[in-house]
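Researcher: Let's run the pair from yesterday's discussion. Sequence first, then tokens, for each.
Model: Starting with the first of the pair.
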Amino acid sequence: MRVLVTGWSSFVHGEATAGDVLSMRRVGETLAGAGIAYETAWSPRFRPQALHLDDADSGRYTHLVFVCGPAHGEQVRTLHERYASCRRIAVGVSVLDPADAAVTGFHRVLARDDPSTARPDMSVSAGTSTVPVIGVVFAPGQAEYGSARRHDSVHDALERWLGGLDCARLPLDTRLAGDDWRQCRTPDQLASVFARLDAVVTTRLHGLVFALRAGVPVLAVDPVAGGGKVTAQAAALGWPALIPAEAALDSTVVDRWWRWCLSAEGRDHARRNEFPAADSLASALLDELLPGACA
């Protein structure tokens, strides 16, 4: 017996949702636990180096299992033609039309949405591992820096680097809005988000500040050649994980500081970081308004 595991994540014109992929993982776990040989087919757009349907010869398999998503559409119907010699089973799928050839082409359909025998989605019991949750806060164009701006090249390099990390990336914006549910409305709301992160990557001054306020390690990258306000603020707050624009394109430098941020030393430094001069600007303002008041 050899099983080919498929799903919407197997189709070139499909999509790989987290639920679909996790359900396919659960099927793989089930088969492996029973000692059944199997392979999983993935879309070349999602996993270019993996097994693809075009390379999965039907003669290699006794069974085809289609996992999760709707049992519907031409791509599913094509599976029945391509793997006609296999016993075909759909599991954890939604059935929109029981008479659809995409459904009737299966020898057995174990649906998740049958009103009489509804079953939990397979992803609920699949194994997962915990990865760091990081906030990503990029500065806007900041045209005021003129020819010293390196925002585009720095952000391009960071985006490529971020794409290779095994972590959950949460794009954040320090701009507030009262008419857009996707934006925080108050600083308190944004501070609450930062407090729940494991780390932050930022090219924005307040990305650095909000992370350290919350005791969260932050990889700060200054997008201004020669150093701008991010560099100055890192110095003011005594935070060492600061990368100048000139070094941001060097992934070895970025990797080294990132490992430090996630290390016990980096996390402890962020938690214990104290800001003895935090109110110096407030004191200076008060002294301007009321000379001698802060003496």
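Model: Moving on to the second of the pair.
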Amino acid sequence: MISRTVTLLDVARAAGVSKSTVSDALQGSGRVAEATRDRVRAVAEELGYRPNSAARRLRRASTGAVGLHLPATATRLDYYMNLAFGAVERAQEDGLDMMLLGPSGAAGGRIASRVDGLLVIDPESGDSAVPGLLDAGVPVVTGERYLGPAGGPSGAVVCDNAASLTALLDHVTERGARRPAVLAPSGSSAWATALRATAGSWGRARGVPVTLRTVPFAATPAEAEAATRELLAADPAVDAVICAPDGSAPGVLRAAAALGRPVGGSDGSGGGSGIGGSCGSGEGAVHQADESRGSGSRSGNGNGSCGEGAGPGGGGATADGSSGAPLLVASCVDGTATRGAEPPVTAVDLRPAAYGRACAALLCDILAGRTAPDTVRGHAWSLEIRASTGPSAAPAGP
């Protein structure tokens, strides 16, 4: 015996409401009281109602799909793959398929005919595809803000990236670092821009010199290793390296091992000899390293000199960056590479799968009329403290 398909009318009769009320309740649209919405959904579940997605798309002139645009480097980064899976999972909960767009994007009108909305993750102001996507004529949600000149998106999900790098810099100085360095990402995304700016503002606010070196947005471990070797050769007193790009931390560890710098502190207080002499007049300084030469010049209003051998454990350093002084290592992005490293690396867990879900949820809410356009939602991170910066402690977060 073939069972009959349960229809909207069946649900309406069982729930004692109109067919249109059932439709609005199940789609999350219209003015339906919360109690009625819950009752309708419970009845639909009990009867085994399954929406006819094809018919629903025809009624709404909908494609039943949304597009996902990722940075060109995404295919080799663990972070973006986890984010994409989270976004796909959440979109499917609203009956929407996810279409992965090529790095070059597509003409606005052409892509708008194939999707109901778009997710654009970490948009770069220099990405030529982004303006066309923002002007495609469908709702667009960005993962992080878009800093370019094109029209703004319909919504955004953002992390407090300045706060996450501040937490890392505070942590390594609490563990004894006196000359931290940041391998910051190049590019014009909101994430990269915030990290570079924060390295400078943190140093000025705390009177601590921060060496800033720019590396590729998706620097490989080999590129991070080379940058760290050059960094320590240019400034052997550096006693903590915070690397930003996803998956690059093992390269920093390899550089430390090659230069005889044990990674991690010996105790929670950090010890160290402190800074010999003075570094400025309290306004701090930022050491901006030159990528091409591997050397740096000091900027800021610091008067006086910074002594060598500062940091956890003290100790001198040779001209090539070699010394027996410990080096603290941390990462702005947590993942397989940081968790599985030896020693495991302290990192900011940006929770990429949950972030992808949050971006897709906002787009779904805008498409269904549950949320007004121009909505900006925040996304939480946590600081995972591991052996690369000394004894473990409870995770921190915003």
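Researcher: Give me one sentence on the second I can quote.
Model: Confidence is low (pLDDT under 50) at residues 53-60, 266-311.
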